[in-house]
């Protein structure tokens, strides 16, 4: 049985009990910058730090990720030419590389699972989003939650993986065995809504739209 769902938001928060919170972006292009209450639109990843409102863009291009420098950006210590400098303002991101934005914001780019296009941005400086999360997930088609080191979100005490996946612009999850989505018993697979709560024998998490 599947519960009725809606088109999933481009960005949402994922709160996992006893694990942490995660800022999930599902678009192919993600903007990073300082939140500005005076602007109508917020960057996809608003970081409280010494950044401009639109400081950099990360784009998923097939199996690769590219970063575009709108303002000062360094990757593994190498400065990336800015958009307004006339040079090619793009750099490829590899698993484990260090991204520096402005004078002090530092992020770590991770591709923990070689068979999916989903990536993770970890905070390597004291900066954070608002609300504060453990990491930012750049979600391609799937996002793996589970106990293995290659999971996109490592949930050490879980006994089974839970996989979030997109289909026809909607979000689903699947796992082995029974679970409940918004109080409805589901077997193996179910559709999620913006604010769904999901529970199973060893896990519990909920979504919050942004």
Q: Could you please describe the fold and organization of this structure?
A:
The chain has strands at about 10-15, 20-25, 30-35, 45-50, 55-60, 65-70, 75, 80, 90, 100, 105-110, 120-125, 130, 135-140, 140-145, 155, 160-165, 170-180, 185-190, 195-200, 205-210. It is elongated, with a radius of gyration of 17 Å. It has two domains: about 1-25 and about 140-210, Sandwich (Tumour Suppressor Smad4), CATH 2.60.200.20; about 25-140, Tumour Suppressor Smad4, CATH 2.60.200. It has about 210 residues and is mostly beta strands. Helix content is about 0%, strand content about 50%. It has a 15-stranded mixed β-sheet that branches. It contains no helices and 21 strands. β20 (about 195-200) and β21 form a beta hairpin. The chain starts with 10 loop residues before the first strand and ends with a strand.
């Amino acid at each position: 049985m599947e519960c009725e769902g809606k088109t999933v938001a481009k960005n949402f928060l994922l709160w996992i009990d006893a694990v942490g919170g995660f800022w999930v972006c599902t678009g192919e292009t993600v903007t990073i910058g300082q939140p500005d209450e005076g602007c109508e639109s917020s960057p996809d990843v608003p970081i409280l730090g010494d950044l401009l409102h639109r400081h950099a863009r990360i784009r998923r291009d097939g199996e690769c990720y590219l970063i575009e420098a709108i303002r000062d950006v360094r990757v593994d210590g190498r400065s990336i030419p800015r958009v307004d400098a006339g040079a090619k303002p793009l750099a490829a991101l590899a698993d484990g590389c260090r991204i520096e934005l402005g004078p002090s914001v530092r992020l770590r780019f991770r591709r923990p699972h070689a068979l999916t296009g989903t990536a993770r941005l970890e905070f390597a400086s004291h900066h954070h989003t608002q609300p504060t999360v453990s990491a930012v997930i750049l979600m391609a088609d799937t996002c793996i939650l589970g106990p293995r080191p290659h999971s996109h979100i490592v949930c050490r005490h879980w006994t089974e993986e839970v996989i979030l996946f997109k289909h026809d612009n909607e979000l689903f999850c699947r796992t082995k065995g029974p679970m409940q989505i918004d109080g409805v018993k589901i077997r193996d697979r179910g559709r999620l809504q913006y604010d769904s709560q999901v529970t199973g024998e060893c896990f519990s998490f909920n979504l919050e739209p942004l």
